[in-house]
Amino acid sequence: MVVITGLGENDAIDPAALPSAKARRKPRFLLESHSMSGRGIGISKLAAVALVAGGLGACAVVPETGRTQFNLISPSQERSLGQQAFVDVRRKLAASTDRNATEMVRRVGQRIADVANLPQAKWDFVLFQNAEPNAFCLPGGKVGVYSGILPITKDEAGLATVIAHEVAHAVAHHGAEQMSEQMLWQGLGTAVFSSLSQMSEGARQLLYSAYGLGTLVGRTLPHSRMQEMEADGIGLIYMARAGYDPEEAVLFWRRFAEYKKTKGGASKVDFLSTHPLDEQRIANLQKLMPKARLQYRPR
Q1: Active site residues
Q2: Is residue 134 predicted with pLDDT exceeding 80?
Q3: In the chain, where the domains are located
């Protein structure tokens, strides 16, 4: 399963299990996140011990920010996973028949891709006919935009905000990073729990639950929020480099926040969220704006 990064609170999406458009009733605010679970990647007890022992040195550096990240997945593996998942997504979702909007998505996407730091990426920018206000990115450069987000983006600069954010997730290898962390925590859990064979079943189940909740609230969710903020910052730089006014990013996120409020989707519980609160991300964009404006060259 590949976890697709989207714009709002993210869900893990199995492309083979995507519901039809008719089956979707409530808007899901995915537009951001960004995690990926690999197909066919299982971890036995022995592999888990090896992963924990040897994988801790698997560090990489995020382009643009210089942050050190834990990543066990190679770029070629990322591209392969992304391509496979995108084929499945395109089987399940209908492409838009609006030629003008489709061309706009392709045109804006290519401008962003031209300034993005992702060697050997095979970029695809596809507009899907779906009323949900969403977009997603798969590893290796596969970006999908739902037609439902266009009334909120309003123009090319707003659309550039969305696409640059998704492209930033790909450049920063956020999906591979999340999958690597999942493998690490699973490996640690397997190594620890295999040594507790004498513990009663009830006690083991209680410990399993505590471990799962602890890693979710203590690491997974905070890390996801950090990745969202990072994608916002990288995306802001990319839209500026591509010739789009970075100030438009703040205007888009304000419109998106207002839309979510009308649909009951705005969250006020930070520590249980995969994404930063709207006011936090807007404040972060404003903080980063001076740096982005230095790279802004109108076209």
Answers
A1: 166
A2: yes
A3: 6-293
